[in-house]
Design a protein that fits this description.
338 residues, alpha/beta, binds flavin-adenine dinucleotide, Rossmann fold, single chain
Length: 338
C-alpha cells in the first residue's frame, strides 16, 4: 500500500449522524485510493462521536483519525482548522476531500491557505490522471472537474506541485455506496493541542430550523421555472407535486423572480437531486440547472419551445403551455387513480 498517496475525507457529523455528503465522499475516495494503490483516511472531529468511526469504515475508510474533544463538540472555524492543519502538516496527504457545505466551504480554504495548496470548489467529478507540462509528466494527479465561466466550459483543474490536492463536492454529486459491514479499519486517536486564540469564539446559543423541503432524497420532484410566470401560478407546481407525493423544485430564475424560496433551487448553485421522476415545467434546461438534475431516472419536460435544451435530456417531451398541460395531468391522475 502506497501511504504517500493517501486520500483524506473530512467527516461532517451532526447530532450523532454522519452527513450524507461525507459518506458519498468516502465512496469516491475509496475509488480514487484504489486507483492510486493507496488508502482512505477519514478525519472525524467532534465530541462523543467515537462510535461513528465504524460507520466511516463501513463506507470506505481504512483509517479513521479521531479527534474527540469537548472544544470540538460544535463546529467552530479556528479549533477545527487547527486540528486539520496540524494533521495535514504532519502526515502530508495526497488528496483531501470535503463536502461543499457551509462547514466544508469554511474549513477547506483555511487548510489550503495554511499549507499553500490548491483548492477547487464544487467539483462535479474527480478522476486520477496524468498531466504534462513541457517535458515534465506528473503522474496520477487528481483531475478536479467542474463547470467554469458561467457553465460555458467544463474545466479540468490540476495541482501538480502543491499537495494535498484539495477539493469540495456538493451533496448528491457523488454516488452513495451501500455500507459494507465486513470492512475492517483502524482507528487512531489524535490529541488536539489548541492555542488560546483558537478558542476565543464561544457558542452561547444554537437554534435549528427544520428544512422547508427535502429535495435531496425526494423520489419525485416537480420543478418550475421562469415559464411558470408568477408566484400565484406556481401553485400549479405545488399542486402536482403534492398529488404525486413529491417535492417542489425550481430553477434559479424562478427563485430570483420570487416565485419560491431558495431552498427549492435545483442546480449547480442549488441542490443536486437524483429522483426516480423529475418533471421540469417551464424550465429551459441551462447547463447550471441540468447539473443538478440530469441524473434523474426519468425526466418529463413541459415547454412551449420545441428547441428548449431541456428536451435534449428529457425522456418524455411535452411541447405545450404548462397552464394547459399541468391541469390535464392532474385531471388524468384523478381519472385514473383508483
Ligand atoms: P428561462 O431560461 O427563462 O426559461 C424559461 C423557459 O420556460 C423557456 O424555455 C420557455 O420556453 C419556457 N416557457 C415559457 N412560458 C411557458 C409556458 N407557459 N409553458 C411552458 N413553458 C414555458 N440555474 C438553475 O436553475 N440552478 C442553478 O443552480 C443555477 N446556478 C447558476 C450558477 C451560475 C454561476 C450561473 C451563471 C447561472 C446559474 N443558473 C442556475 C442560471 C441558469 O444559467 C439559467 O439562467 C436558469 O436556469 C434559467 O431558468 P429557467 O429555465 O427557469 O428560465
Amino acid at each position: 500500500m502506497n501511504k504517500d498517496r493517501e486520500v483524506w475525507v473530512f467527516i461532517e457529523q451532526e447530532a450523532g449522524e454522519i452527513a450524507t455528503v461525507s459518506l458519498e465522499l468516502l465512496a469516491k475516495g475509496r475509488e480514487l485510493a484504489e486507483g492510486l494503490g493507496s488508502r482512505v483516511c477519514a478525519l472525524l472531529f467532534g465530541h462523543g462521536i467515537a462510535h461513528l468511526a465504524e460507520k466511516a469504515i463501513y463506507h470506505g475508510a481504512d483509517l479513521v483519525l479521531l479527534a474527540d474533544h469537548p472544544e470540538l463538540a460544535l463546529y467552530r472555524t479556528l479549533p477545527y482548522a487547527r486540528v486539520a492543519i496540524e494533521l495535514v502538516r504532519a502526515r502530508q496527504p495526497y488528496i483531501f476531500l470535503l463536502g461543499a457545505t457551509p462547514i466544508g466551504r469554511d474549513l477547506a480554504p483555511r487548510i489550503a491557505s495554511a499549507v499553500r495548496a490548491g483548492l477547487t470548489a464544487d467539483c462535479t467529478d474527480l478522476q486520477i490522471g496524468d498531466f504534462q507540462r513541457k517535458d515534465r509528466v506528473y503522474s496520477d494527479l487528481l483531475y478536479q472537474i467542474r463547470p467554469a465561466f458561467g457553465g460555458n466550459v467544463i474545466a479540468t483543474i490540476v495541482n501538480p506541485e502543491r499537495h494535498p490536492q484539495l477539493a469540495t463536492v456538493r451533496e448528491g454529486v457523488m454516488r452513495l455506496a451501500e455500507p459494507d459491514r465486513t470492512r475492517r479499519g483502524e482507528v487512531e486517536r489524535v490529541e488536539p493541542q489548541f492555542d488560546a486564540r483558537d478558542l476565543v469564539l464561544q457558542v452561547l446559543k444554537r437554534e435549528m430550523r427544520p428544512p422547508a423541503c427535502n429535495l435531496k432524497s425526494a423520489s419525485i420532484v416537480v420543478a418550475g421555472g421562469a415559464g411558470v410566470g408568477s408566484k400565484e401560478n406556481f401553485r400549479l407546481i405545488h399542486e402536482l407535486a403534492h398529488l404525486l407525493g413529491g417535492e417542489v423544485g425550481a430553477s434559479r430564475a424562478a427563485v430570483d423572480a420570487g416565485f419560491v424560496s431558495a431552498e427549492h433551487q435545483v442546480g449547480q448553485t442549488g441542490v443536486t437531486v437524483r429522483p426516480r421522476l423529475y418533471i421540469a415545467c417551464g424550465i429551459s434546461g441551462a447547463v447550471q440547472h441540468r447539473a443538478g438534475m440530469d441524473q434523474s431516472s426519468k425526466i418529463i419536460a413541459i415547454n412551449t419551445d420545441p428547441a428548449a435544451p431541456i428536451f435534449q435530456i428529457a425522456h418524455y417531451k411535452i411541447v405545450g403551455d404548462l397552464n394547459a398541460v399541468i391541469p390535464w395531468m392532474i385531471h388524468a391522475y384523478h381519472a385514473n387513480a383508483k
